[in-house]
Amino acid sequence: MIRKMMGAAAMVATTVSAAEAIQPPQPPAAAQAPALPASPVDPARLAAAQRMVAAMWPDAGFEEAMGAGLRDGVAEYTRPDPHAEQRDPHHAERMRLTVEATTLESRRMLGVLVPEIRTLAARYYARSMSLAEIEEAARFYATPAGQRFAVGSFVIFADPAAARAFSPPNDPALMAAFGRIGTRIDTATAHLRPQRPPAPAASDEEEFEAVPLPDETLPPPPMGVAPPAPPPPPPRMPVAEHEIAPPAPPTPPPLPPVDPARLAAARSAAALIWPDEAFSQPLPLPRLLATVLAIPLSTFGDMLPLPPGPDRNGTVGDFLGRTDPNFREGATIAAGILSEELPRTLPLIAPHFRTGVAELYARRFSEADLADASRFYASPAGRAVARNSFSPMVDPEFVQGLILLAPRLIAQGTAAMARVRQATAHLPPPRPAPAPKHDDHDEDDHDHDSDDQDRQD
């Protein structure tokens, strides 16, 4: 889970050579989150889980994902744009400095937040796995094969082909299952939606003008009368410069074929790493919802654009329920239904997910690495890790901890914007886009009328 999150979060990074010389601005002080009670954890299991998570999510994985997985995003962000360069001769330099400055702050953000995310994950695994399972998993990920698999697992989810792993086709059974869930939620929350007043009955004395529908055939014109000519098309107005769409990026070349032997080994590994059991775990969504709604808004300090008033002293639930007094009840009903239905529905996604992941594995890992991973994930410890592949994302304590990191994340984003302004301050600002051209037909008609009047005089 953290691999996918960090692969997406790092889409702003590239080299940092020029930005290293810039003095970092002081970020605004982040609001201190209130201390919240945490579930008791056995100290020995927690220490072992911290070693396991440090090996599962190594710094090298984050570094390689930030470098290898973001090349396409950086190339797209910095590719030549003739329309922007017409207004800004320094556009290419501005984009280069922006990317470098943002990269430096992104690395700084990872250095601050990743240790805390590891701690949250370690607490989850310490509550969910036995001490023997945690220690066995930590030993595997500390081996050279385990480290290659840990680092490579970061990178494959930042690969352009990774979208296949998360985009199942239109499976009729899957679509029908989600349709049933939606119908059940709509039925269970129907009493919370405002009832529309009935439409007034039409009076017999009211007269209605019959208006032909677009598909009705109009009567033909009388004999000898030409049908009316269609109206002329509107004049084609010149397109303003700022309305010209930039050229579409080039289509990426097709991926080379996968070696059949490695693909077979990758499919065997994917079946063990992403079992159906990982998709059918119980989902404590009502408890997760209650945990999130109870977070005080003061946790976020002044980072959220809230209106003045008592809302600042309330909770997230109070804020979301301002305009809908039935919001909390409706969300709780939906969370309860989803917690029942999703463990029965999500396993339908598993085959499509494994198909995409297997191809990514085959392109990244050798047959030997895939065999080592398969042996570990076939063990009791590996099955425990695989079973919990998605569970942290819905664990109330883990999600709550991530949310409480939001003020610091926002502060890091503010620091990144300040660094970009500092890095590009020496460049002249770009020229503003020209205003859209207005229709001059009325003025032209007025001029023609004046000319006619002069001729008559």
Brief sketch in words of this structure:
This protein has 457 residues and is mostly helical.
Largest sheet: none
Query: What's the alpha carbon Rg, rounded to whole Å?
Result: 30 Å
Percent helix range: 55-70%
Q: Decide which structural class fits the backbone.
A: mainly alpha
The arrangement of helices and strands along the chain is HHHHHHHHHHHHHHHHHHHH
Q: Low-confidence parts lasting 5 or more residues at pLDDT below 50? A: 1-36
Which properties best describe this structure?
single chain, 457 residues, mainly alpha, disordered N terminus
Walkthrough of the structure:
- The chain has 457 residues and is an all-alpha fold.
- Helices cover 56% and strands 0% of the residues.
- It contains 20 helices and no strands.
- The chain has helices at 2-9, 43-56, 59-68, 71-78, 82-87, 91-128, 131-142, 144-156, 172-188, 260-273, 276-279, 285-293, 316-320, 327-345, 350-364, 367-377, 380-387, 396-404, 406-423, 441-456.
- The radius of gyration is 30 Å and the shape is globular.
Q: What's the layout of helices and strands?
A:
Layout: H1 2-9, H2 43-56, H3 59-68, H4 71-78, H5 82-87, H6 91-128, H7 131-142, H8 144-156, H9 172-188, H10 260-273, H11 276-279, H12 285-293, H13 316-320, H14 327-345, H15 350-364, H16 367-377, H17 380-387, H18 396-404, H19 406-423, H20 441-456
Helix pairs in contact: 2-6, 2-7, 3-8, 6-18, 6-19, 7-17, 8-16, 9-14, 10-15, 10-16, 12-14, 12-18
